[in-house]
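Thought: the user wants the 3D structure for the chain below. I'll pass the sequence to the structure tool as-is, report back what it returns, then summarize two notable features.
Action: structure_tool
Action Input:
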Amino acid sequence: QYLTSKVKHADETPVMVKVGGKLRDCRMWTGLGGDGRTAVFVYNRHRSGAAALSFLEGSSPGDYLMIDDCPSYNKPVKALKLIVLRCMAHIRRKFVEAYDNGSSHKDYLKKILIKISQLYRIERFADKKGFTEEQRTELRQKLSSVVLTEIKDHLLNPGFVVLPQSSVGKAINYFLNNWDEAVRFLENGALPIDNTPNEQIIRPFTIGRNNWMQAGSENGARRMAILYTIITTCKLNNINPEDYLKDVLMILSVRPENADVTDLPVNWYKKNNGGEDPLHTPLYPSKN
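Observation:
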C-alpha cells in the first residue's frame, strides 16, 4: 500500500543493533503513504543509496517522494524516476537556527519566517474548510505562489552582503538550491508541503529508543520494524492494535495459507465493519 501510493513520504533514523557481537549504528527506514493511512518501518544495516533503493523498490515512475536532502535518496530517485518534493519545515528550520544563533540580521530572518508561516496559514485554511484537492490546488496557485514569489525576491535581494558560510548565507543558499523541489507542492493539492507527518510517526520510535537503547540482533530489529509498522498504521486509523492483532494472529495461527491483503489494518477494519472506512487522524497540514 505504501509503494503503490502516488505520493509518499520517506525518512530514516538511527538505531543501535548488535551485529556479530558488536553494536553497530544502523538505520530504521520509515515511510508514510500520501493519504496518511499507511506507515512503514523497514530495518537496514546501512544508510546508503542501495538501502534507500531497497526501501523504495516497487515505486512507479512519476511517483512523488517527499524527503530531506539526504544524498542516499539520489539513487532511487534516478533509478525509479521519482519526482522529489523538498520539506518546507526543514528549510524553515535553517532560518530558525540562524535566528537563534544570534545573527545580526534578525529582522531579515524574521521576515522570511513570517512569509513561510503564511504558506502554512493557507494550508490550514484549506484544511479547515475541507477543500478538495482541486480547490487546494487553485488556492495554492492563487495565494501561495504570490507568497513564494515574495520569498524568492527576499532571498535574491537580502539588502546586505551575504557571507556564504554564515548561518544566514547557508539558510538562503539551502532554500535557493532546493527551490524547484520546495515549490513543487503548488502543482497539485494532493502534494504535501513538508515531511512533518513522517517525522511525527518516527517520534514514538525515537522516544522508545531512549529507553530500550538497542536491538539485541538484526532479527530483533526486523521484528521491531514489523510491530512499529502495524501499530503505527493502526493508530493512524484509530484502530485498537490489541483488537487487530488478537484477531489476525488467531486467524493466521489456524489458517496461515489464507493470509492476504485483507488482513492489513485498514482492510481488516473494513472487512469487519461492512466496508466502512476507519476514522482517520490526519497528520497534515503541519502546525508550523
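Final Answer: Structure generated. Residues 240 and 246 are 10 Å apart (CA to CA). Residues 133-156 form the longest helix (24 residues).
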